[in-house]
Write a structure and sequence with these properties.
The complex is a heterodimer of chains A (about 250) and B (about 110). With about 250 residues, chain A is mainly α. Chain A has helices at about 5, 15-30, 35-45, 50-60, 65-75, 80-90, 90-105, 110-115, 120-135, 140-165, 180-190, 195-210, 220-240. Chain A is about 75% helix and about 0% strand. Chain B is mainly alpha-helical. The longest helix of chain B has 18 residues, at about 85-105. Classes of the chains: A mainly alpha (about 250), B mainly alpha (about 110).
Chain lengths: ~250, ~110
């Protein structure tokens, strides 16, 4: 049994929140091991120095953008193309922040800055689930920062491993570690599919993202996401239009 | 290309995307329609990440067949996730099946 469910509603100490946040992020940390190693290996292979490679992981902290940058560097693209790709690729993080903002509004700016800067796909998935299942609570931001720190330290560590000994594990891509991210996200999405609009949003997002996958800059991801959101919203509004008094899911 | 400038720019772009909503959180709220739309962000975005990863195992060729271990394991994980609603069971069973198909039962 998932112990976070059993503890729902209880006020936890900062330390307890921190430990739970780390624990719940562990599968996703495992899932990004291979990406970190491959990035470190590819970046140094593409001519970046050790420090430049580390600086990218330390300051950009966005796996997908870092991979695109290396790919584009290999194609001798201009810096503007790299920046454009970063922008398009990471616009989804704006949606993440918008989704979670109600949970951090009460915090000081000193807290909000790291919680925003470290808001990756993985931490978003973990935090969305946490707030949905357990609500906030006075120390929920310690859970959140633990997820951020876990992902961040993990990413730096495996980038460094990739830089130093990555070439000795040329087939790490084939080990299947990345699949931990897939099953984690599946485990987060499936319980959310309670009504027809949510099903429709998922199906449409899946189909559009697959059909549009060959587009550059992972545009298919953003198109799929936006199409899913639009269809979900349209069905939701239609349903509520028919039953104005119906309880809404929030 | 000037690599440090490229990295600095990427870092600033990322911050410009991730930070403003939290930074200005006290000064605005989203209109109700946007709030409704945001409720679909988790399912839509996470699905748009998962499905192409599963169906394009090498990121280039679409593989919708029983020879694709990601597909089999993902379908099974989805069923487990739907039935049990338990995240750790979904991860554990999904990963176990995937690694099994991948390493011991090549299709």
């Amino acid at each position: 049994m998932d112990s976070t469910l059993e503890n729902a509603g209880a006020v936890r100490s900062r330390g307890a929140e921190f430990a739970l946040g780390l624990r719940d992020t562990l599968p996703l940390m495992m899932g990004s091991i291979a990406f970190g190693v491959i990035f470190g290996t590819l970046a140094t292979g593409a001519g970046l120095s050790v420090w430049q490679t580390m600086a990218m992981s330390l300051f950009v902290f966005s796996g997908s953008a870092q991979f695109i940058a290396i790919l584009l560097l290999g194609m001798n693209s201009s810096v503007w193309v790299v920046w454009f790709a970063t922008l398009v690729l990471n616009l989804r993080h704006l949606l993440y922040a918008a989704t979670l903002v109600d949970e951090v509004r009460h915090l000081s700016q000193a807290w909000r800055f790291p919680l925003a800067a470290f808001l990756t796909d993985e931490t978003f998935a973990v935090m969305e689930r946490r707030y949905r299942m357990q609500g906030g609570g006075p120390n929920a931001h310690w859970y959140y920062i633990a997820s951020c720190i876990g992902m961040y330290v993990n990413w730096q560590f495996w980038t460094l491993i990739g830089i130093t000994v990555g070439s000795e594990f040329p087939d790490i891509r084939n080990w299947g570690l990345q699949f931990a991210m897939v099953v984690s996200f599946i485990g987060i999405v499936m319980p959310l599919l309670e009504t027809r609009p949510y099903w429709a949003a998922t199906v449409v997002a899946g189909i559009v993202s697959v059909v549009a996958n060959p587009l550059p800059y992972k545009l298919g991801l953003m198109l799929g996401a936006l199409a899913g959101i639009a269809v979900g919203l349209a069905l939701d509004l239609k349903q509520r239009g028919l039953q104005p008094a119906a309880e809404t899911r929030s | 290309m000037n690599i440090p400038v490229m990295i600095l720019g990427m870092a600033l772009i990322n911050l410009a995307i991730r930070w403003p909503v939290y930074l200005f959180a006290n000064h605005f709220r989203f209109p109700p329609l946007i709030e409704r739309a945001l409720a679909f962000v988790p399912v839509a975005v996470l699905t748009a990440i998962i499905v192409p990863t599963v169906l394009y195992p090498d990121d280039k060729t679409l593989d919708i067949s029983w020879h694709n271990p990601s597909l089999l394991a993902a379908v099974l994980a989805a069923v487990v996730g739907r039935v049990t609603k338990n995240l750790f069971a979904t991860i554990g069973i999904g990963m176990a099946v995937y690694l099994l198909l991948r390493w011991w039962l090549p299709l």
